[in-house]
Design a protein that fits this description.
two-stranded antiparallel ribbon, 249 residues, seven-stranded antiparallel beta sheet, 22% helix
């Protein structure tokens, strides 16, 4: 659950809640004994037993590593492998596999064909969804069908009220969008042109607000995307052939 500060089309703002939307699990997986099956994290390997460690222990000779594998099981730690993991944290390691605490992140730029265009140091991004300046309506409304055919959505949040006043506030927003059957682009910052950042140094998202109403009930949904669907340009040969055929016609 996250708190956001959001404004409506009349520049009135309020702090409300944004909850992740998850679908109900309609399928139950049972084990042989009829018990409920659950997902568990299991330790698969450790750095002390990986290929780099075995190479270091065998003079960097793959032949010796192969002989060691045939003679025994040096890649398996019988005491730890297969144990259940509960609380885990992601860490960064250097080539020596030592934990590092200061890292430089890069943004990798990829073209529509999946080729690397370049990379640049990643700028530190602070959250802008629950600050003094509210998320604002940019005035850019788009039909739902066009948006869903143009963007790939990776997240969905339901914006909910926290009291009676914010109920009326959000209901009016949902009603306005529902009546126009459109979605509104949200922006952060003073000028309203910033993408949405929910936590420090997390991915930036473009947010589209959708409204639905049914009597006195409403649903205000914030669709999140960081990927726009674009048709790749045809190779130069195909483009020139198409232009030539058009000229002949």
């Amino acid at each position: 659950m996250a708190e956001i500060n959001i404004a409506d089309s009349r520049n009135r703002d309020a702090r409300v809640q944004a909850n992740s939307v998850t679908s109900m699990n309609v399928v139950r997986w049972l084990d042989e004994g009829g018990g409920q099956a659950v997902n568990r994290k299991i330790l698969r390997a450790t750095m002390e037993k990986d290929i780099d460690a075995m190479l270091a222990a065998n003079d960097d000779d793959l032949e010796k590593v192969a002989q060691a594998l045939v003679a025994g099981d040096p890649e398996i730690d019988l005491e730890f492998y297969g144990s259940f993991l509960s609380e885990t944290s992601r860490v960064f390691v250097n080539p020596k596999k030592e934990i590092v605490h200061r890292v430089t992140r890069f943004d990798v730029l990829i073209d529509p064909e999946g080729k690397l265009k370049g990379k640049r140091p990643k700028e530190s991004q602070e959250s802008n969804v629950a600050v003094e300046i509210p998320l604002t309506w940019t005035g850019k409304k788009m039909p739902k069908a066009k948006i869903f055919n143009q963007f790939f959505f990776t997240g969905l949040l339901q914006v909910t009220h926290v009291n009676g006043l914010t109920y009326d506030f959000l209901y009016d927003m949902a009603k306005e969008l529902a009546e126009e059957d459109a979605m509104m682009l949200l922006g952060g910052g003073k000028s309203g042109n910033e993408r949405l950042v929910f936590r420090r140094n997390t991915p930036e998202y473009t947010g589209f607000l959708e409204g639905r109403i049914e009597g006195e009930k409403y649903a205000l949904l914030l669709h999140l995307t960081n990927m726009e669907l674009k048709t790749p340009e045809p190779p130069k040969d195909e483009a020139s052939d198409a232009a030539k055929q058009k000229g002949d016609a």
